[in-house]
Amino acid sequence: MGKYILGIETSCDETAAAVVENGRILHANVIRSSAAIHEKYGGVVPEIASREHVNAIIPVIEEALYQAKLSFSDLTALAVCCGPGLLGSLIVGVSAAKALAAVSGKPLIPVHHLASHIAANYLAFEDLEPPFLALIVSGAHSHIVEVVSYTEYSLLARTRDDAPGEAYDKISREIGLAYPGGPKLDKLSYEGNPKTLDLPRSKFQDSLDFSFSGIKTATLNELNKAEQKAAKRLVMREEILSNADIAASFQEAVVDTLMSHLEAALEAHPQEKLVLAGGVSANSLLRKRCEELGRKRDIQIYMPPLALCTDNAAMTAAQGYYEYESGIRAESCLNASAMWELGAPFPATRKLSTEDVLTSCE
Ligand code: KG4
Ligand code: ZN
Predict the structure, then answer these.
(1) Using CB atoms within 10 A as the burial measure, which of 109, 227, 236, 279 is most buried?
(2) Mutation choice for ligand 1 from 11, 168, 276, 339, CB with most ligand atoms inside 8 A
(3) If you average pLDDT over residues 248-272, what whole number do you get?
(4) How many CB atoms lie within 10 A of CB 325?
(5) Same domain membership, residue 268 and residue 169
(6) Would you say residue 356 has pLDDT above 90?
(7) What is the pLDDT of residues 70-108, one digit of tens each?
């Protein structure tokens, strides 16, 4: 019989609930975003995001169960994103999940946000199994990890400053694109010349770690210089340096950096499968370059469909299934955490033995 997991995700500005069977089959995927409200502030306002989660969480969960044609009694367990993310936002999802698990008597499974981004791929590719190498690129993170098993990871690289999505959103805002700017800048880049700006591609001597603040600052400097020139000549800045050329140069520099680190990681830690995950994995140039890399190195590339790249709860439910099968269970005092290292144990969580998992009649 299928194991149905209800996933709940509220780590940023999306209130999401989904139902997934056996970690692979999607029955419902409901997302309500408050991005339109944040748009006028140029980025996510945490207090507003939390308030919107409070308003949306119960209707979104009800809608997911309705679409899946299931009731609480049909569920095997509830899985909730506990971090990393905005604390006030996470707390709303975790509190709702705790309350619903308590009243329904169902087990509750804590899920790491980045682990869930990886798991988005299990929904799209039924043959995909660990081990593989994963690039996780989002609004707050940039990691290269070896996914050893469904619940074990070895971190090979992380960003030492900005995340790529954060840099995309910052540059987008400066050139007048509304939040979230990543997809809009991606589109605009095709109208520009990527060679216009000579932007740095940072690399550390003996580490695979990323740094994106250099690219971001250099782009902002070029923008300022162009504005000063334009002011002197009494013309619009766009006549000196166009938004499309900025977008194309910036995108090229970010994707070059990601690709060179990926190649170095694959050299040092060869794998036959490469998985992309996180909001920035929707980026068209990154996807194209990864396909080329796959052909060049003769490895299989997995990229989530665009709808599963950015935050959703289908990925939470998919990862929740594998955590459930590995015996992970939350205690009733579970809480959210803004910081949580991928692969590290989470507070107020216990692990059942393999025997208990097999014999448990939850
Ligand atoms: O994973 P996600 O939904 O949220 C976090 O966990 O942070 O990622 C959101 C980020 C935003 O910064 C957004 O601008 C970026 O992903 N993004 C993109 C694209 N689509 C979304 N960045 C570049 N190109 C895209 N096509
Ligand atoms: Zn995310």
Answers:
(1) 109
(2) 168
(3) 98
(4) 16
(5) yes
(6) no
(7) 999 999 999 999 999 999 999 999 999 999 999 999 999
**d(CA 118, ligand 2 centre) in Å:** 10
Tell me which residue has its CA closest to atom 16 in ligand 1. Answer: 279
In terms of residue numbers, what domain contains 322? Answer: 4-121+309-360
Protein residues with CB under 6 Å of any ligand 1 atom: 12, 138-140, 165, 168-169, 180-183, 186, 278-280, 282-283, 310-311
Task: Select from 13, 141, 216, 280 the residue to mutate for testing ligand 1; criterion: most ligand atoms less than 8 Å from CB.
Answer: 280
Q: Is the pLDDT of residue 117 over 80?
A: yes
Q: Is the pLDDT of residue 234 over 70?
A: yes
Residue range 10-51, pLDDT digits in tens: 999 999 999 999 999 999 999 999 999 999 999 999 999 999
Number of domains in the chain: 2
Residues in the chain: 362
Q: Which residue of 251, 310, 316 sits with most ligand 1 atoms within 8 Å of its CB, as the best mutation to test the pocket?
A: 310
Question: What φ, ψ does residue 310 adopt, rounded to 5°?
Answer: -85, 175
Question: Residue 148's domain is classified under what CATH number?
Answer: 3.30.420.40
Q: How far apart are CA 54 and CA 192, in angstroms?
A: 42
Please, where are the H alpha helices in the chain? 35-39, 46-68, 87-104, 113-124, 164-174, 182-188, 213-233, 237-240, 243-268, 284-297, 306-309, 314-325, 354-359
Give pTM, 2 decimals: 0.97
* 288 and 225 fall within a common domain: yes
- Distance between the two ends of the chain, CA-based, in angstroms? 14
Task: Give percent of the chain above pLDDT 90.
Answer: 96
pLDDT in the model for residue 43: 92
Residues 225 and 208 in one domain: yes
